[in-house]
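Methods: example folding runs. The two proteins below were folded one after another, and each record is reproduced exactly as written to the output file, sequence line first and structure-token line second.
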Amino acid sequence: MDEQASKQHLYDVAKRLGVEGRSRMTKSELLDAVRKANRSETRKARN
């Protein structure tokens, strides 16, 4: 995920990934949460 992405875009991606607490997160927190959720989804897909 790109640091240049808007907060709204990050929020939308976080919503799609099911990240909890996203409405209270800052842009940097959303970015970290989306990256973490993406890693988890990738791991699940590989198993």
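Second run, written to the same file directly after the first:
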Amino acid sequence: MQILIRTLFLLTLLLNSFRLFAQNGPPTVEQVRGYMDEDYRQTKVPLSEVYKTEARKIAVGADSVTIQIYYPTGRRNLPILYNVHGGAFIWSPGPDMNISRILCNRTQSIVVSVDYRLAPEHPFPTSINDAYAVWNWITANAQRLGGDPNRVSLVGDSAGGLFIAALQVKRQQEGKPARPLAMVFVNPGIDLREGAPGGGEYRLVSNMYLGGAAPNSPLASPILADNFGDYPPSLVIISEKDAIRQHGILLADKLKAAGRACQLVDLPGLDHLGPIWTAANPKAQSAIDATVNFLNTANTKRGK
């Protein structure tokens, strides 16, 4: 089946829902999730095999979140990749994602993915706190997992890109964990302020996520952070037709202005990747290849 690539956060689907439910106002979170579930179902491909997977619960205060750990081999001292998924702040594919499996195999890394709590039931900053707790757990348990604590990298797509940028704000505030080896941002949306690129649909899900909180803090809108000079080498992937491509361009500009190594990859002819990235659908191959090459180079340099 030919896959129809949606615009940012399934813009076409959301637009249709605006038209369909115009008499009752904008779509509800349940309606948006239903559309996203269907779009993800259409993009899914068979899961790639990995050496081993493991599910765990990680405590976050009095609550907990589920993580999935992927192992490419039984060897030790492997790189670790922390994958924070996208989903417009309100949707999750579940903890087991094919992109995690593909990156596990192709980078020979232990991959940890987090199924953070979702807005609007758990508004800002719950998802960031969940992701931060898991990141601290990873660094504290890297050697027990068979990983190299000096080779921990982060990847986040879409809303996940905002979260891993917010994690750098948290790290600078809290003084831990150590700076990651590398970071990969895929179609990141990192500015939630009124008027930020993305249009009404982006504002809809942003407001669901913020839950009334102000968007003009570095934790909510990491493009406002003070210290981009503390970032590791980064890869920023944007798409030609993505409504929030400007977010990635601004991030890359900030990193370069701060003297940090940053590669900006612009995917011609493509829209916001969203579910095709999460599913590791062949239509996301160029983004996957760029990510793998970047991470393998970073891991090899640090491993010498």
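Comment on the second run: The chain has one domain: 11-303.
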